[in-house]
Design goal:
With 276 residues, the chain is an alpha/beta fold. The chain has nine helices and ten strands. About 8% of the residues have low confidence.
Length: 276
């Protein structure tokens, strides 16, 4: 995919979340079903190494996983660096969240290490940082890196691999990296909505270049029937996940891969790997 096409798709998603951040976050309150199973594997892997978690959350959204982890983990949560491009999402925390330990910190901050807070938020264009080899913000290295609901928004397989490796490089040996891969075309309702958006996009002259840039399994989706702001999403199959793992910049071991979420339990494909 050409860089200009990647930029156009990223702008599409940026505009989508800037417009829909509040209404989108309002529907993203409860923990994902798959997180409970995933956390059990994470704790099994890390319990013998440490009792203190240092977490990097790439595209943290409204901090749902951060607060789920605060409530549910048996390990001590020492640090949680949350990254997202949309400041309004980072501040739109779930209704039941404990925000007493959350401190917002823009990427331009230089004194994050001095903030006595567990959860720190960083507003940053993650994909731009990865493309330009700009280090992701945060404090040192981590023993857990996570990214949920983000990989499907990354245009091109090459850039998805680079994001994966950016997470790997911020982890210590023995750390866990947990990802989700959206498989929305498994859901008949979402598949029908995707087809409707595609038919609409074909009728819009300003979207022809966007449609022409899409690769296999790439789609455009609307939100609450609002076709003015569309988002780019990629549906994953397991072979694409295998390709990402094969391109790892450091030795890794796959711990578990499973499907969860949605009415049929197959809306997300979860992956947990350990850096060797």
């Amino acid at each position: 995919m050409k860089q200009s096409d990647i930029d156009a798709l990223c702008r599409l998603n940026r505009d989508f979340y800037q417009h829909h951040a509040q209404s989108f976050s309002a529907t993203r309150q409860a923990p994902w079903q798959g997180w409970t199973r995933l956390l059990a594997h994470i704790e099994h892997e890390l319990a013998h190494q440490t009792n203190a978690l240092r977490v990097l959350d790439c595209a943290a959204g409204n901090l749902r996983f951060a607060h789920f982890l605060q409530r549910e983990t048996h390990l001590k949560l020492n640090l949680y660096d949350a990254l997202d491009i949309t400041d309004s999402l980072l501040h739109a925390t779930p209704h039941d969240a404990d925000t007493s330990n959350a401190v917002p910190c823009d990427i331009r901050c230089s004194n994050t290490a001095q903030m006595p807070s567990i959860i720190q938020t960083h507003t940053i264009d993650i994909l731009k940082a990865v493309r330009t080899n700009t280090p992701l913000p945060g404090q040192g290295l981590y023993n857990l890196a996570v990214s949920f609901g983000f990989m499907h928004h990354i245009p091109s397989s090459e850039l998805r691999i680079r994001v994966f490796n950016a997470l790997i490089q911020r982890c210590v040996p023995g750390a866990c990296i947990a990802l989700s891969f959206w498989q929305f075309m498994n859901d008949n309702s979402l598949a029908k909505k995707t087809a409707a958006v595609h038919a609409y996009a074909k009728s819009q002259p300003e979207l022809q270049a966007v449609l022409a840039s899409l690769e296999p399994h790439d789609h455009l989706l609307a939100w609450q029937q609002d076709y003015r702001y569309l988002r780019y999403c990629h549906h994953f199959d397991d072979s694409e996940i295998d390709d990402i793992l094969a391109a790892s910049s450091a030795p890794i071991t796959e711990i578990v891969r499973f499907s969860a979420d949605g009415a049929n339990g197959n809306l997300n494909r979860y992956l947990l790997v350990r850096r060797m």
